[in-house]
Write a structure and sequence with these properties.
The radius of gyration is 24 Å and the shape is elongated. A hairpin with a 5-residue loop joins strand 6 and strand 7. It is about 50% helix and about 15% strand. It starts with 6 loop residues before the first strand and ends with a helix. The longest helix is centred in the middle third of the chain and has 38 residues. It contains 13 helices and eight strands. The protein is α+β, with helices and mostly antiparallel strands and about 300 residues long. It has a domain of about 110 residues: Beta Polymerase, domain 2 (2-Layer Sandwich), CATH 3.30.460. About 30% of the residues are buried. This is Nucleotidyltransferase.
Length: about 300
């Protein structure tokens, strides 16, 4: 079936080149809002988001990374107060790509008050999730790599057809070195066996029955390890912290505070130098978390003052 292209109503610079935090390794991010064709709307074939990502890993320096949003999806995100959508509404015109501006975007900008409200809960939630997200990923990556390494070693030592249950004692010893939150031995009820629980080894929500072979287990945890990708590995190498994610958290808290107090968000960010310090890991983790938590307190206070 033929594809009718969506008409672009705005294409803008986003990411570090907008925030003022780009470094030599930064790619170039763009956001595009598109108006779907009448046919796609009637046939309910509109895609909410389309992305030009070349892989699951980050792009190379100066490579373009473009995300396309349908107009309906963008307006939904904007009304929900989602960070990216609110950011886009305040991007200065000098960051628009020449020739991409449609009258629909002007209509959105001139009626911004109808879409953006003073509740910035989404901003605050995003800040904390960004600060913690990749630290958790690094912990999980440690556990997954340990599980994969264990089963690969057992495969070399005892042969690929060896059952997991045959190396259970060694496996328990390895699991004791990790938190119960990431490794364990759950029993899963099997109705076909009169409700008898079958013991499994579990690591980061990936379960392997004790009757599986060590080769099968090694493959499962190898694939799971690969899934976590380059940024989690970088966080692992840096002691479990993804400083880029932490810098996003600091930025979003500052944006939420500015939106509440001044009714706007400034780009490039006034605190860009601070954000660069965070991104480069020049500040202690405790200091960065204090910046985030103190900022969230100010945001909560500003919200309370607006509601009284």
């Amino acid at each position: 079936s033929r594809t009718i292209p969506m008409r672009q109503i705005i294409r803008m610079v986003y990411g570090s080149h907008l925030f003022g935090t780009n470094i030599e390794s930064s790619d170039r991010d763009f956001k595009v809002v598109c108006l779907p064709s009448a046919e796609d709307i009637l046939l309910q074939k509109v895609k909410k988001v389309r992305h030009n990502g070349l892989s699951k890993e980050r792009n190379q320096p100066e490579q373009e990374d473009v995300e396309f949003l349908s107009l309906q999806h963008y307006l939904k995100m904007l009304c929900e107060g989602q960070t990216m959508a609110v950011d886009m509404a305040f991007v200065p015109e000098e960051y628009y790509v020449a020739g991409s501006l449609g009258p629909e975007w002007y209509a959105i900008r001139s009626n911004m008050g109808r879409f953006i409200h003073s509740n910035v809960t989404a901003f605050a939630s995003f800040a904390l999730s960004q600060a913690r997200r990749y630290s958790v990923k690094a912990d999980r990556l440690d556990a997954l790599e340990a599980a994969h390494g264990f089963f690969a070693a057992m495969e070399d030592l005892h042969g690929p057809s060896t059952k997991v249950t045959e190396v259970r004692m060694d496996l328990m010893g390895m699991a004791c070195e990790h938190s119960r939150e990431v490794m364990g031995f759950p029993r899963i009820i099997n109705p076909s066996r009169n409700g008898v629980g079958i013991e499994h080894f579990e690591c980061c929500d990936r379960k392997v029955p004790m009757g599986a072979t060590v080769k099968e287990a090694a493959n499962i945890y190898r694939k799971a390890t690969e899934f976590y990708g380059k940024r989690a590995r970088l966080a692992q190498q840096m002691g479990g912290q993804d400083w880029k994610a932490m810098s996003h958290a600091v930025r979003v808290v500052r944006e939420a505070e500015e939106l509440l107090l001044d009714g706007k968000i400034t780009f490039p960010r006034p605190e860009a130098n601070l954000l660069l310090q965070v991104r480069k890991g020049e500040l202690a983790h405790e200091e960065v978390m204090s910046l985030i938590e103190e900022g969230l307190e100010r945001v909560n206070l500003a919200q309370e003052n607006r509601s009284t």
